[in-house]
């Protein structure tokens, strides 16, 4: 690998390149746009476009694309070459400011939830100058927002940027009360991405993995994760080569990949980058996911990012570490004496209030068919939202509520009793891996998002609800003559009202859902239960008030999410039925014949030979076939019924309540046969084989 400092960011039109290549005045104006959000005019865009094109061509680019994030959640691109044919038969390479700022992809083939009538196909993409352009596969990629002809957001980035703007405004109002006037406040995100790597040859044998991203059949492996040896274990050489290549490619794109390790489940891994401003971190995460999938195939591997590719072992999450800073200073840093840090406490209180008031919306933001298999299954976290603060902050909150004083203990020096081992200061929070929303030292870690998710949805919600809580504080304290005292009184009241959301215990215990119900916390177990939260009057009012989403935009998103859920489960149902009929039933039949022949030929040799074992097996196989056949018929009926329902919510509920249980029944019946049928007769690679390759 070339020198990493030469490699790093070499495919990005970043600040360094801009400074080098743009005329001074142009650079200054663009910097103002990037740093404090000033609008950009066409002259500047023309100059930037020219420099960008020259730079991209030098690096081998022939095309450019407006890179955007439609409501499917994945990224989209349409490549246009720089070529402009000339009258004399030659061609110039050109790229104008207008082309940089605005694109016009046909919007009709992207989901819009009824926002765009099919006759009104026009959509626009607009440059997001705050996220750097980059080169991927010889294409200059320009991060953009995607809107309809009428200006409604058709993507995930637009509302995210609006929410960042909203929280910036409200955070500044709060900071002004502390006598501070930062140029900009920004939210930051560090996204920890989990994934599985399996062998391509196993993958290609399984229609379920190919079409749905998860195994719809398979008994748990004989050995799972119970030996706890995989987490942080030594990394397989093949996987290591993949990770090395991935790091190199990410670094070229200026994506600060930092940590990589084996995860809890066999064949599971994680990559964590260093955090960045939210929209940049999300763009980077989407590129990371794409590169992971692409590079795996160069190593004979397939990267699975589904939330639950295998039952019986952990699934894939994407922890969303979140904080907010003012001109780079972290506002969630408690310092060494949090009780005396009024500004920190005000921001902490705002987050607690926000998460409690809008639990439903937060849960909604991570709801998907695939994440349903993770939330509430026996791995962190459950579907109930709560906040973990850790011992010290919980004591601080308690002291505020009870109007008591709290003093932080002496510095928490860790002395290991071995003179050669250095002493160090402990963090003021321990880890609680089971909490969905945990304070982890100087940031919150939202652990509910699924590995496949585009984190824009979750962060749009977090930013907006915290903006609202900050606005409430700023409104209440406006004109206060005794700020410190009034702020404390406000916090005491707010924390008293919202303390039910704080839970430091084990979120996976049997007692927690019962306790949560006593506290009237929401427990929205599945996507069809969670999605209607977005159209609650309270949610619409919130999004409209902060200019993040309009009512029609919200309604369209609701439709798209419901539709997406139903379509995904429908595909899974069809694959379940198809694999059963086309692969498992013939395999079981074939093996039954083998056993039947064995009985017959033994009897031919001697009528007194005991064939009881074979006969019992044959009976089990026959009974299994009958059960499977009945279950598949029930599934097919359920699929037919669900797909005939027009209303989107009723449709999704039918998939949830009828199709999924019918799929489970088929799976159970087939899985029971897997352990009876001879290995070479079973038509697909099993968990033992897939998860424990060398
Ligand atoms: P762990 O989750 O194991 O405690 P770290 O604390 O090192 O690991 O960080 C996990 C992720 O949180 C990393 O991506 C890191 O960059 C990110 N992170 C750290 N500080 C912040 C912050 N202020 N805002 C957002 N993310 C952060
Ligand atoms: Mg973490």
What does this entry look like structurally?
With 694 residues, the chain is α+β, with helices and mostly antiparallel strands. Helices cover 47% and strands 13% of the residues. Strands 9, 10, 11, 12, 13, 14, 15, 16, 19 and 20 form a 10-stranded mixed β-sheet that branches. Strand 14 (318-326) and strand 15 form a beta hairpin. Helix 11 (342-357) packs across helix 14 (456-477), helix 19 packs antiparallel against helix 20 (612-643) and helix 20 (612-643) packs antiparallel against helix 21 (648-674). The radius of gyration is 28 Å and the shape is globular. The model has no long low-confidence stretch (mean pLDDT 92). Adenosine-5'-diphosphate (ADP) is lined by residues 188-190, 192, 272-275, 321-323, 330, 440, 442-443.
**Largest sheet at a glance?**
10 strands, mixed
Q: Tell how many strands the DSSP assignment holds.
A: 20
What is the count of DSSP helices, taking H or I runs of 4+ residues? 22
Given helix and strand content, the structural type is alpha+beta
Averaged pLDDT: 92
Given the C-alpha coordinates, what overall shape results? globular
Rg (CA only) = 28 Å
Give the low-confidence spans: none
Q: What fraction strand?
A: 5-15%
What is the terminal separation in angstroms?
A: 26 Å
Unique ligands: adenosine-5'-diphosphate, magnesium ion
Residues in helices, as a percent range: 40-55%
